Amino acid sequence: MEKAKIARIWRGRTLPHIADEYEAYNFEEGIRPLIEKALWVQTLREDREQETEFITISYWESIEAMSRFTGSDPNSIHHLPRDKDYLIEIPDAVQILEIRTSNGRSQ
Length: 107
Prior knowledge:
Elements: E1 6-14, H1 19-37, E2 40-47, E3 52-60, H2 63-70, H3 83-86, E4 95-98
Antiparallel strand pairs: 1-3, 1-4, 2-3
């Protein structure tokens, strides 16, 4: 198995009353296809009083591997067809980080 060297982080916010619906939609339309391409995928959620934030972190063996999924620009975002219906604002960028240290136990 390849070792993850790159983390790609996407953030999006929605209103609390539609957060569960968006989470289910995002998983089926966005996360499920990502799971097939990335080495590892995490989805995180923080419920706040006025908004709910979702964070998706995908792990990749290289920028080149990530670019094969995203297209020529690894910073480009694949917007889902209904993102504009759910998200408070449409994200215009992702964060790409080089993994320097990774340690832990898998379950």
